[in-house]
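Quick one, tokens below:
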């Protein structure tokens, strides 16, 4: 999952709070994380059905637009060892 700005000239957004926790099932289009710019707060939706495997960026945090926030996979998927 990566934040997008929808054409705004913003390069960073604030991750306000996670709406889901690791292990939660997600449906495509369902809000997963709340983000904030100087002008708007919005929910970043799950791009696909799946499970929130790992939260990479903890709240609160400032992140680059396009930066990695977390991983979505399928039930039973595991994250590779880092």
């Amino acid at each position: 999952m990566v934040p997008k700005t929808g054409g705004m000239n913003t390069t960073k957004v604030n991750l306000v709070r996670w709406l889901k926790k690791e292990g939660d099932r997600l449906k495509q289009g369902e809000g997963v994380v709340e983000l904030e710019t100087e002008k708007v707060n919005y929910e970043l939706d799950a791009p696909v059905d799946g499970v929130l495997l790992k939260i990479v960026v903890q709240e609160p945090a400032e992140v680059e637009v396009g930066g990695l926030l977390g991983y979505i996979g399928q039930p039973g998927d595991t994250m590779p060892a880092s």
